[in-house]
Amino acid sequence: MTEETRRTFHEDLDSVRDQIIQLGASATEAGARATQALLDGNLVAAQAIIDGDDRLDAAAVEIEENCQLLLALQQPMAIDLRRILAAIWITAELERIGDLACNICKGTRRVFGTEFSPRVRGLIAEMSDEALRLTRLGVDAYVDEDEGLAAALDDIDDRLDTLHADFVQVLLEHRGEGGLDLQPAVQLALVARYYERIGDHAVNIGERVRYLVTGWKQEHAGAAREHERLRRGLSEDPA
Amino acid sequence: MIWLIAVAALAVGAVIGLAVHHLWVRAAVAAADPEASGSGSVSQALTRSRHLRERASSERAAAELELRRLRGSLDELETGIVVCDRAGEVVARNRAAAVFAAARHGEALVSRAVTELLERARAGEAGARDIELATHPRRIYHVGAAPVVEAGDEAGPGEVLGAVAFVRDVTDQQRIDEVRRDFVANMSHELKTPVGALSLLAEALGAESAADEALVGRIREEAQRVARTIDDLMALSYVEGEPPTDERVDVGAVVAGAVERISEAAGQRRVGVRVLAGSVSIRGSAVQLESAVFNLLDNAVKFSEPGGTVELVVARDDGGVAVSVQDRGIGIPRAEQDRIFERFYRIDKARSRLTGGTGLGLAIVRHAVLNHGGEVEVDSREGEGSIFTIRLPVPSPDAEAMPDG
């Protein structure tokens, strides 16, 4: 690659990064608005978020195509190659987070008219904040290529898992006291699961960033064990 | 012998060379400074060219200083400013705008809006939009962009140099507006019930003497006046708070509705209302527009002399429709004309008490018209009367076929 093409290649990489930042911002905004719509029982706002998801999808497709173009035309190597692969994967994770915001909106419709207790409202708001905070940290780790932060996301996610468990517990208690019908209780449990999934996608972003920086993937550990077994199997083979 | 010829040849060559060099320098200096041509020695020419260089470099330094001062001034602004050239390349960005360019989270959406609006502004289309961020802390940004065009002269419009975008944080402003609107709406509701009761109680009150009857009459009248003010406050908070619905509205029908509502009061004051209206369709809210036209008619009738006539004309003008209401009443002093659209502004407080005005009518008109992307103007002379004109845009046939496009 000449200096000139490399310069434009890195500019192209920067613009892919900016697009991912904007996709992340759109996804977290959609998540925050979905939570607000759920707590307010605002069906109009919920529908607007569902309609707005097309824009996220279009942005994700555009990023992917840009990445494919870069792969085909520049044939990058080493960390440049991993940057593009990570970008494709992270885009997919963010796009899924947007989809989960839509799922929360659909849940808003299904629980419409249900009075939430203060405890339930508080936990929903907290799960939302936590899930979106994780997503933002994931984007931070990606932009800074910060392997340490990326690796920490899994542990940070524990708090969201705890909140999720607490929430389900509270739902069961409310059911026991006769304060919540079965149908909305089930829907709320599903909504809680969506927040938890958003957290998981944020953790995945962290994994992609670790791959970007070091070339290491979590699956490599398992693959190494399998190779080791095969090697031993072959050496123990009498033939 | 041969070496003598060679030396002579070298000497001649040197002289010619020097002469050519001299001529070349003179020509060069003449090209650089027309005044120098035909006079001065080589050293003078060199001095002059050094002066020219120094002048150019000091001018350059002054221009750079000017630019730095401008940039420094822009950096002090709270409004973010981004300037791009004709090709769309960002050439300047002040400190407030740099925050958005470097943003990683919600604010990155502001940066995207800037890019999109600059793109359109470069094509000559100014635009603006609000970006509301739901993530904590909630923020609302107003982003706008416009083409940068050199000031034109008689020869024609100036050249398009690029585009400029601005970003303003309007969170506090919007919050204050919201609080004010809510307060007015809530207070009006709270006041309406007791005032209604007062009015009814006054009706029920028996009058034993003529003095009692006069007092009861006054109570009833004052209660009705407060009720009208509350109604207008609620109408105003409605047009301020609600975006107009996007329905097809026949201006002719709107006018007919408003005329119908005013006919009783006009009859009482013996004021005639003449209407000249065709059928024009626009998009918006019939309720808000009727309220606007009614308030203009209400004023016109109030300020007309008994036996006078109010004229209402609906006409197409370029790209829009104009609804004008003309009276031959007392008119509005020129100095007051700028302020009459403010809420509770009254020119003559004593007279307003007499006519039962609330001081809110024209504020309602202005808000309703602004909501529809239109404008309202007044042409009035004291002692001769006033013409109020509402201008509303009419959607082009294409836009009507595709309301979303």
How would you sum up this structure, described in words?
The complex is a heterodimer of chains A (239) and B (405). Chain A is mainly alpha-helical and 239 residues long. Chain A has a single domain (3-236), classed as Up-down Bundle (Methane Monooxygenase Hydroxylase, Chain G, domain 1). Chain A has helices at 3-40, 43-74, 78-110, 118-144, 147-176, 182-214, 218-236. By secondary structure, chain B is α+β, with helices and mostly antiparallel strands. In chain B, 53% of the residues lie in helices and 21% in strands. Chain B has helices at 2-32, 42-76, 95-101, 108-122, 171-204, 210-241, 251-269, 286-302, 349-355, 361-371, 397-401, and strands spanning 80-85, 90-93, 127-133, 139-149, 160-169, 247-250, 272-276, 281-284, 309-317, 320-327, 375-381, 385-393. In chain B, the strands form 3 sheets. A 5-stranded antiparallel β-sheet of chain B has the order 2-1-5-4-3, sandwiched between helices. In chain B, strands 7-9-10-12-11 form a 5-stranded mixed β-sheet, covered by helices on one side. In chain B, strands 6-8 form a two-stranded antiparallel ribbon. In chain B, a hairpin with a 3-residue loop joins strand 11 (375-381) and strand 12. The longest helix of chain B is centred in the first third of the chain and has 35 residues, at 42-76. Chains A and B meet through helix 1 and helix 4 of A and helix 4 of B.
